[in-house]
Write a structure and sequence with these properties.
The protein is α+β, with helices and mostly antiparallel strands. It folds into 4 domains: 243 residues, Endopeptidase. Chain P, domain 1 (Glutathione S-transferase Yfyf (Class Pi), Chain A, domain 2, Up-down Bundle); 67 residues, no CATH class; 56 residues; 174 residues, Orthogonal Bundle (Neurolysin, domain 3), CATH 1.10.1370. Helix content is 52%, strand content 10%. The protein has 21 helices and 9 strands. It has a 5-stranded mixed beta sheet with strand order 5-6-7-9-8. A hairpin with a 2-residue loop joins strand 1 and strand 2. The longest helix has 32 residues. The protein starts with a strand and ends with a helix. The N terminus is likely disordered.
Length: 576
């Protein structure tokens, strides 16, 4: 089954036709079948070219040019649809091999284009790219509808799904067939012609709205930067001051200090700054992204998106969007999801009230005549930690060096998965930015090659905020693709030259968490590419488990060491 482009957040991600999406772990199947044919247009457009080089081929990130993107997308879509036509034109009765497996192999060139598209969308966005994105969003949606609404194709899929042979399939074959069938059935394949047209129209409009929504958020992240002078740095730790100075210098503001409109910059500022009015400004700027009553405002878009989603699932016979979305998740129904949330809600509210009361009491004790507001929460929470537990978050930060945490993740991967990570020679694998580094992943015992791991750790203009994992190529036995290409992406603030990059405990947990998604991809052992990944809540569960390794003695004693003295985090600090 081929993957269809859907827009979520700021990235184009490739997802199964079932509609199971994971913004943290999108993946794309890249065929390396030797018999793949290339047209003349492919030969001159590097975005369409089969990947070459070591490790069963790697993306040609060094050949990415926006001027090639539109033509590559249009050519790739045409070839993808031509591959579909070959399946529907087959005079033989539909079978698992000539229909379900055949779908796994279509559109290899377009898959490659989507890999580059995802980099531009998530890691290197620009006004030029966003113009192409706006133009292509409805065209890509129309292309997706042509596949999901292809009646001849769905008849063949349904014939396999409802056949007696289904019972004799292996568990993998049954799972794949079910995913393919439900992917079509849950995305409009069973509708009448009038309904199909409306469904396709809604998808086109949603593609435009999703693209505009995400670009509005990114525009606000890029457009709002708070520049400080030396007199406005009260309370900020030295590491944050140096990072803010470097951020300002990189933006042409030598001698000033930049607090960017991203979580990795906003969060520590709100935690440590003694300048309450500046905290208020930073908080409001960050939490009003897309909500400023200007050209980048998202309020009207949100209302239209919700209305269209409701209408779309109504065409499919669902009561609401949540029912449609949760059918393949662990909760299964909105009611069960709400029951879970409400079971913890009273305790959560009580805890927040207790914390705010502690903050208010401490503020009064310190002579601060204020009422705790959202922009005060992190600051006074830090003060309460110091007062009640003698715990200073900045003290903890001194033991959380970014490079040492990466080594810790490699150690955990070796202990749990028997993986070994070795840096590849610089220049041997193309990267899309100088900050990106690449490691070869092998089995520690046998030396067997498993894949590559790309790391893009630092924030920059044009990169969406947050942290995420993605796969440029997943594992699949049926076509011999066994070299996984996995990636982690973060937004840490780059320190001054020669200075250690120190991060918070929350960020360290997130670093481990997202690495868990990469390990998931690298551990894959499936026959068909569609079976990579999994249901979103399941994939999040296993990454949450990996976070627990951060606070083990083995990791603390070897890797959570002071960036100046090299001494391990003291036991009393760990206990706090």
């Amino acid at each position: 089954m081929k993957l269809i482009p859907i827009w979520l957040g700021t990235a184009l991600v490739s997802v199964s036709l079932l509609g199971c999406t994971d913004n943290s772990t999108p993946s794309s199947h890249q065929s390396t079948v030797a018999t793949e044919q290339t047209t003349q247009s492919e030969q001159v457009n590097p975005l369409l070219q089969p990947w070459t080089g070591p490790y069963q081929g790697v993306p040609a990130f060094d050949q990415m040019k926006l001027a090639d993107l539109t033509a590559a997308l249009e050519t790739g879509m045409a070839q993808h649809l031509a591959d579909i036509d070959k399946i529907t034109a087959n005079p033989e009765a539909a079978s698992f091999e000539n229909t379900i497996v055949a779908l796994e192999g279509v559109g290899a060139a377009l898959d490659r284009v989507f890999t580059y598209y995802g980099i531009w969308s998530s890691n290197q966005s620009s006004e030029e790219f966003r113009a192409i994105q706006r133009e292509m969003a409805p065209k890509l949606s129309e292309f997706s509808s042509k596949i999901t609404q292809n009646e001849a194709l769905f008849k063949r899929i349904a014939a396999v799904y409802h056949s007696e042979q289904m019972q004799s399939f292996t568990s993998e074959q049954q799972r794949l067939t079910k995913l393919v069938y439900l992917g079509f059935a849950n995305n409009g394949a069973t509708l009448n012609e009038e309904q199909k047209k409306r469904y396709a129209d809604i998808n086109q409009r949603l593609a435009q709205l999703y693209t505009k929504f995400s670009n509005n958020v990114l525009a606000d992240e890029e457009g709002y930067v708070l520049y400080l002078n030396a007199e406005q740095l009260g309370g900020l730790p030295d590491s944050l001051v140096k990072a803010a100075a470097a951020a300002a210098t990189s933006r042409g503001k030598e001698g000033m200090y930049a607090i960017t409109n991203t979580r990795s910059s906003m969060d520590p500022f709100l935690t440590y700054s003694t300048e309450r009015e500046l905290r208020k400004q930073v908080w409001n700027t960050y939490y009003s992204r897309g909500d400023n009553a200007d050209e980048h405002d998202n309020n009207a878009l949100i209302a239209e998106i919700l209305a269209l989603r409701d209408e779309r699932v109504g065409l499919l016979g669902f009561d609401n969007y949540a029912t449609w979305r949760l059918q393949d998740r662990m909760a299964k129904t909105p009611q069960r999801a709400m029951d879970l949330m409400m079971s913890v809600w009273p305790a959560a509210i009580a805890r927040v009230q207790e914390e705010v009361a502690d903050m208010q009491a401490l503020a009064k004790q310190q002579g601060d005549d204020i009422s705790i507001e959202p922009w005060d929460y992190r600051f006074y929470a830090e003060q309460v930690r110091k007062a009640k537990y003698d715990l200073n978050s900045d003290e903890v930060k001194q033991y959380l060096q970014l490079d040492k945490l990466r080594e810790a993740m490699f150690y955990v991967a070796g202990r749990l998965f028997n993986f070994n990570f070795t840096p590849v020679a610089e220049g041997s694998v193309p990267v899309f930015h100088q900050d990106v580094k690449v490691w070869e992943v092998t089995d520690k015992t046998t030396g067997k090659h498993i894949g590559l791991w790309y790391l893009d750790p630092f924030a920059r203009t044009g990169k969406r905020s947050g942290a995420w994992a993605t796969s440029y190529r997943g594992y699949s036995k049926y076509d011999g693709v066994k070299n996984v290409l996995s990636s982690n992406n973060s937004n840490f603030i780059k320190g001054a030259p020669g200075e250690a990059v120190l991060i918070s405990w929350d960020d360290a947990e997130t670093y481990f968490h997202e690495f868990g998604h990469a390990l998931h991809a690298l551990s894959s052992n499936v026959t068909y590419p569609t079976l990579n990944g999994g249901v979103r809540d399941y994939t999040e569960f296993q990454s949450q488990l990996l976070e627990r390794w951060l606070l083990t003695d083995e990791v603390i004693n070897q890797f959570l060491v002071h960036h100046k003295t090299g001494e391990a985090m003291p036991a009393e600090l760990v206990a706090k």
